From TrEMBL:
Transmembrane segments: none annotated. Keywords: Hydrolase. Its EC number is 3.5.1.1. Pfam families: Asparaginase_2. This is Plant-type L-asparaginase. The active site is at T179 (nucleophile). Substrate binds at R206, V207, G208, D209, T228, G229, A230, G231.
Length: 298
């Protein structure tokens, strides 16, 4: 098994070493798995369980102070599973896998996704909030009332506090850099997965690129990709699909990642990163200040 994992694109993390050690552990865990789907699920679960990453435990708080998790995965035969807006679910990637394996659908949301998790043995009711993120939220004088009040509150706080409309607003320095993802191959088939707590102080119920096929993740027989960064802008350009299309056009994984990020920047002026795995090659690219990755092979 060959696997590449990422720990999110954004600013340079405060403590890169322990994060890198966890990414290496995730890659090793995935490389030891039996199938590419098992590989990406098990690798992402290592990262979801670690509060240093904005996925599962340690996820970003939305405007109402709740962490809601999103994840998506896909295999090269175009099987897809995604789940979003789940309160109290650490292993979002495993819920996505339940959607893929156990339902005739590709995407489930909110309380129904949590019910599905519960019924299929994925733990629910987990406290995903870290003290540090709770304190950061409380210090921002949280909004009361309905969505209009929340929108007024998040105007100056969401992400890096810049314009949310695209057009270069979601700057490269966005602090929300800890989404996680993995792409794996056994030499014959591929799988890709991405998982996140979203973006800090987003409107309660907001869902970004991560569980949207082609945006946060994509996979065909040409290879797979997992994206991270300003989710609204990633969705605008379907970043992961773009990277995999470059593989299908014959580029190697590094050139595919570079091309996709170059186009993303030209089209949005925003910040993101992507990991790509093709036939023989792994690649990654980002236009933010940092993105940690790890590759393993067994
Ligand atoms: N840090 C991230 O990658 C955030 C994620 N792309 C989202 O918008 O939900």
């Amino acid at each position: 098994m060959r696997i590449i994992v990422h720990g999110g694109a954004g600013g340079v993390p405060n403590e890169p070493e322990p994060r890198q050690a966890t990414l290496d552990e995730a890659a090793e865990t995935g490389a030891a798995a039996a199938t590419p789907l098992d590989a990406v699920e098990s690798a992402v679960r290592v990262l979801e369980a670690n509060p240093r990453f904005n996925a599962g435990t340690g996820g970003a708080l939305q405007s109402d102070g709740v962490v809601r998790t999103d994840a998506g995965l896909m295999t090269s035969d175009r099987s897809i599973g995604a789940a979003c807006s789940m309160a109290g679910v650490e292993a979002a990637v495993s819920v996505a896998r339940v959607v893929l394996a156990e339902t005739p659908h590709i995407f489930l949301s909110g309380e129904h996704a949590v019910d599905l998790a519960d019924d299929f043995g994925v733990e629910t009711g987990v406290d995903l909030t870290t003290e540090e993120k709770r304190e950061r939220y409380e210090a921002e004088d949280p909004p009361q009332g309905g969505p209009r009040e929340h929108l007024a509150w998040l105007e100056t706080r969401f992400g890096s506090g810049d314009d949310q409309a695209g057009n270069g607003g979601n700057k490269r320095t966005t602090p929300d850099h800890d989404t996680v993802g993995a792409v794996a191959t056994d030499g014959e088939t591929f799988a890709a997965a991405t998982s996140t707590g979203g973006r800090s102080f987003a409107l309660a119920g907001r869902v970004g690129d991560v569980p949207q096929v082609g945006s946060g993740f994509f996979c065909t027989e040409a290879g797979g990709a997992s994206a991270t960064g300003a989710g609204e802008d990633i969705a605008r350009v379907t970043l992961s699909r773009r990277a995999v299309d470059h593989l299908a056009d014959g580029l190697d994984a590094q050139a595919a990642a570079d091309g996709a990020i170059r186009e993303f920047e030209e089209l949005t002026g925003s910040g993101a990163g992507v990991i790509v795995l093709g036939d023989e090659t792994a690649g990654s690219a980002f236009n933010t200040d940092g993105m940690q990755t790890s590759v393993a092979y067994k």
